[in-house]
């Protein structure tokens, strides 16, 4: 896989899982609703396989559909909330971000680069925003 420097033995690699995750990653801020053909093109799998993956992910609650287009549901946020509650960097950075925000009245974020995408992992809030806080993740 291009994102990993780690080697994996072929008999340890589950291609179906990799394809399912690639399918979820095909959705993004610039491509929120996709049809079967678009998913097949973005992931390099056949239309038949893409349809089966989409229907499975819909059944599992990760996608919703209007029978023509598919889109992500809130269920995918379970992965991000698990990461954010367990990862060290967001926890350590949060107090510094809040301090900077309190001193400057500006909003600050910590982001990581994932391939060519910037992913926010922590964000500051002004104290008066506490009752309005909604996670941007």
Automatic annotation (TrEMBL):
Domain of life: Bacteria
Keyword Transcription regulation on entry: yes
Name this protein carries in UniProt: HTH domain-containing protein
GO molecular-function term, one example from the UniProt record: DNA-binding transcription factor activity
UniProt-listed InterPro entries: GAF-like_dom_sf, HTH_MetabolicPath_Reg, Tscrpt_reg_IclR_C, Tscrpt_reg_IclR_N, WH-like_DNA-bd_sf, WH_DNA-bd_sf
SUPFAM superfamilies linked to this entry: Winged helix' DNA-binding domain
Source organism per UniProt: Acinetobacter baumannii
Gene3D superfamilies reported for this sequence: 3.30.450.40, Winged helix-like DNA-binding domain superfamily/Winged helix DNA-binding domain
Gene Ontology terms describing biological process: negative regulation of DNA-templated transcription
Higher taxonomy: Bacteria, Pseudomonadati, Pseudomonadota, Gammaproteobacteria, Moraxellales
């Amino acid at each position: 896989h291009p994102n990993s420097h780690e080697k994996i033995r072929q008999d340890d690699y589950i291609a179906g899982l990799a394809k399912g995750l690639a399918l979820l990653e095909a959705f993004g801020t610039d491509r929120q609703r996709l049809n079967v053909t678009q998913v097949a093109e973005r992931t390099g799998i056949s239309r038949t396989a893409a349809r089966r993956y989409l229907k499975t992910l819909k059944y599992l609650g990760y996608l919703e559909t209007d029978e023509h287009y598919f889109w992500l549901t809130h269920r995918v946020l379970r992965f991000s909330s698990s990461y954010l509650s367990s990862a060290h960097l967001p926890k350590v950075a949060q107090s510094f971000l809040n301090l900077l925000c309190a001193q400057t009245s500006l909003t600050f974020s910590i982001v990581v680069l994932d391939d060519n995408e910037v992913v926010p992992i922590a964000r500051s809030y002004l104290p008066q925003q506490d009752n309005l806080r909604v996670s941007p993740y």
